[in-house]
Amino acid sequence: MKGYTGKVLFVDLTTGNINVQQIGDEVYENLLSGVGLGAYFLYNNIPQGADPLGPDNVLGFVSGLLTGTGSVMTGRWLAVCKSPLTGGWGDANGGGDFSPAIKQCGYDGIFFKGISGKPVYLYVDNKVTQLKDASHVWGKDAVEAEETLEKENWNMKKPSIAVIGQAAEKLSFISGICNDKGRIAARSGVGAVMGSKKLKAVVLAGTKLIKCEKPEAVKAISKEFSDKVRKSNLPGIFKGGILPVLSRLTAKQKVFSAANGMTVVSMYKKFGTGMGNTFGIPNGDSPLKNWGGSVVDYNKSYYKNINPDKVTKREEKKYHCYSCVIGCGGVCGISDISKGEFSHTHKPEYETVCAFGGLLMNKNLESIFYINELLNRAGMDTISAGNTVAYAIECYVNGLLTIKDTDGLELIWGNSEAIVSLVKKMITREGIGDILADGVKVAVSKLGEHTAKYAMHAGGQEPGMHDARLDPMLGIHYSADPTPGRHTIGAGTYYNMMHLWDVVSWAPKVKNKTPKSEEYRATDEVGMKSVVGSCIKQVVDGSGGCLFAMITGIENWRLFDYLNDATGWGKTPDEYMEMGKRMQTLRQMFNIREGIAPLSCRIQDRMAGVPPLKEGALSGKTIPIEDMMRKHWKHFGWDADTGVPTTETIVKLGLDKLVTGVENE
Amino acid sequence: MSKGKPNFNYNNCMACGICVAICPLSCLKLSKTNVDKYKKAYPELALQENCKECGICAGSCPLEAIKHIPSI
């Protein structure tokens, strides 16, 4: 009755054994569900030093505590495992309708260990839990496989399906897990782990109701938030062409203040994340030319081609994840672009447009639509793939790769035909594609250390499409999160919109008109703010919440009230933030146990402005990233020099009693 | 006990899909697109013949956008 089921399913793919495990209330009361439950389960069940692609790794699919309770913006699920990409904690966040489907089967999470002798998929409904043969869909792309499995398993309820494409079958370290015919939990190489287990899909058709403590109170919060979203609209005259103008204005600002998060909602409703396609370029948010260029290079003659109006022109209908009242997604027609190969694609996210647009100096929007569908079907992360193609291009134009190495592809900036061909080779692991299919870190190990200066990553994971030289706190999260390289953890802009200082006693208040230069200093305040950002994101990921709801502000999307009404716990915001700190610390402990040196996960020099750019909005900007990481760790109660959680903090958070083997830390 | 087939109030509905996901017989589908300027796909009773009038969809809606029309 508290929004969670108290049960997980644990499948051993080697033996075929399937067990239901009870999870005690104390786990939820300390770690919530979602990523917290995942961290608890993986820490206890993955032996130290396990091969990420071996039988000892555990792959989990976790829902969120608030999913299915009548709350809105809580339809996110996560895949969790030891990451082959980073060698440490791995997670990837997905939308669609898979999160409620996990709980409708009666579980908060489904975990897999072992390796099957043949391709299989797991089918679960209210009565049946069964591993089934997947030989007939092995080799198919994620959309084809989902369509086939949906047809075969649609009895009463239309099943919800998480499935891998060819990239994961071929164990690409940058492959993800797909659902809803083109959504993808893309990061950390979670797809490769699924592929290594010969697990093609998870097919869920349960219809159990999800109960919580005060459903009417939960619904009342949903109604209040939905009414605000309904009223957040841009005027009809607001077109995509205005975005670069606004961007130039923001680039000139020398101060920052608290901001109204609901303004972003109106942008998402109109453009989706595509609002960033051009908004991010003049102000420096979008990394260009493999993080080495600026708006001087990718100027208006380029970026006018990726105006979000041109993207939405192809949008046939909006797409919402489960329980989302904003609806940033869309379904676009691309039959003409793909010459009949594909009828539709999910609207390319900003991350994809930037990773295959400005990052590669590519102005051919049609090629980006096509690549989007290729990668969604293959199940390959567009962020990592784009960064990897950018690395390859920079190697080529500097003579470190020859046309013979590239199998005849002229990998110069903006050559969209060559980029499309290279993506296809990466998916099939053909020729140069095999070298690049595991991301930039593996590529450097194959092509030589002299290419490392062009490989942009943090701890092995390629970064999202937001530049820390504009928002330095983003650089802390890229570098110091246990899943490095993620753009969705925290940022100064998020902090300014969330207004957590109104309810969390230790969250520093943003002073009106604070000089922007303060963001570039490794101060205790910056460190404290970044800890707040990490903790709230853990609470969101434990709840199944959406990042875009989080940044509307705690007074709008009332997360803590939702949790109290769903569970009846009556906890304070400070207590929930303590849970976030516990979850983050447990993920960091996982990395330490695996031998990860946290300082080694810092962003590459170029991303930190070493040397600084000479042109554009970010010219001259440098971030003292290591000092900032140390401030972050200090305020987490971890060793400020090493990033290792201290025994004192572990005991204070009760983690020594919650998980096994902590005495060996 | 039969509670009637669902009737959608699109003034309240935000196309969040909670009702679609909860329907045990997958009778509902997000496919009605002529409701607003955003091209949102709103829910509708796509499989009338499958609906057992259980009322779960209306009970799940946080926005009071579904009412049931009792069968005669």
Kindly describe this structure.
The complex is a heterodimer of chains A (665) and B (72). Chain A has 665 residues and is α+β, with helices and mostly antiparallel strands. Chain A is globular. Helices cover 38% and strands 11% of the residues of chain A. Chain A contains 27 helices and 17 strands. Chain B is of the alpha+beta class and 72 residues long. Chain B is 14% helix and 24% strand. Chain B has helices spanning 18-22, 56-60, and strands at 5-8, 28-32, 42-45, 66-69. Chain B has a two-stranded antiparallel ribbon with strand order 1-4. The longest helix of chain B is centred in the N-terminal third of the chain and has 5 residues, at 18-22. The model of chain B has no long low-confidence stretch (mean pLDDT 91). The interface between A and B is medium-sized, with 38 and 23 residues.
Net shape of chain A: globular
- Count of individual helical segments of chain B: 2
Biggest sheet of chain A, strands in spatial order? 2-1-6-3-4-5
The order of strands across the largest sheet of chain B is 1-4
SSE order of chain B, one letter for each helix or strand: EHEEHE
Q: Can you count the beta strands of chain A? A: 17
Summed up, the helix count of chain A is 27
β-sheet strand percentage of chain B: 15-25%
Task: Return the structural class of chain B.
Answer: alpha+beta
Assembly type? heterodimer
Poorly predicted regions of chain A are none
The rough form of chain B would be described as globular
Unreliable runs of chain B, pLDDT <50, ≥5 residues?
none
Q: What integer value in Å does the Rg of chain A equal?
A: 23 Å
The most extensive interface, with participating residues per chain, is:
A-B, 38 and 23 residues
| Portion in helices of chain B | 10-25%
- Which percent band covers the strand fraction of chain A? 5-15%
Major β-sheet profile of chain B: 2 strands, antiparallel
Label the structural class of chain A: alpha+beta
Helix content, binned percent of chain A: 25-40%
| Amino- and carboxy-terminal Cα gap of chain A | 36 Å
